[in-house]
Amino acid sequence: MKILKNNAIPLCLAAMASVFSITSPVFAATSASTSITANIVGGACDIAVPATVSIMDGDPISAASITPTSDISDTFDLTLSGCQGFGLTPSISIVGDADNDSGTNLFVSNSSTSKGYGILLSTAGNTNFAASTNLATTKNIAAVTKTWSSTLASTLNGTLPLKAMVSCGTCTASTLQGGVLNASLTFNFVYQ
């Protein structure tokens, strides 16, 4: 019996060694690295305009001086900064009340006490945005024609000149009346 016991131990050890060698991992490489990238179309810009624009520094304007050809106006800049991304076409939407009681689309808030007058907002445009003689018509500042699908949004950083002019449109409205003229506008950067 003793002989069988001694022979059984080496046989068990050999069987266990075979099991461990089958389940032991193969150590071909100890580490591997990868770098993952993605090109995501989209982006955004910070947009800013002055909090207030006071035409003629807030001084009173004679109704008689407002004609279809007068230029009682003030200019200001819309500034885009921190623009990031690429691949889409930019535009700037304008939210604000407008009417055409004067024969021309003009921005005018309901809080205005004047009648028949409004703000004719225009832009000369720049290298990224098209010129427009009356932004109350479209309520949008459109991009110029460019290959926007491969243009980085950072090229949009800069200023866009705007002009706010007091207007009575065709000045034929029968309800022309002096008073306070207000136009509250919100500019939104759109990238689509």
Fold and architecture overview:
The protein is an alpha+beta fold. 14% of the residues lie in helices and 30% in strands. The chain has two helices and nine strands; from the N terminus they run αββββββαβββ. It has helices at 2-23, 135-138; strands at residues 42-48, 72-86, 90-95, 98-99, 106-107, 118-123, 140-142, 158-167, 186-191. The strands form three sheets. The chain has a four-stranded antiparallel β-sheet with strand order 1-2-8-6, with no helix packed on it. It has a three-stranded antiparallel β-sheet with strand order 7-3-9. The chain has a two-stranded antiparallel ribbon with strand order 4-5. Strand 4 and strand 5 form a beta hairpin. The protein is elongated, with a radius of gyration of 35 Å.
Largest β-sheet summary: 4 strands, antiparallel
N-end to C-end Cα span: 88 Å
Radius of gyration: 35 Å
**How many H/I helices?**
2
- Spatial order of the strands in the main sheet? 1-2-8-6
Secondary-structure content class = alpha+beta
User: Which word captures the global form?
Assistant: elongated
What percentage of the residues does DSSP assign to strands (E)? 25-35%
Query: Based on DSSP secondary structure assignment, what is the total number of beta strands?
Result: 9
Mean pLDDT: 86
- The low-confidence runs, each spanning 5 or more residues with pLDDT under 50, are 1-20
Instruction: Estimate the helix proportion, in percent.
Output: 10-25%
Order of helices and strands: HEEEEEEHEEE
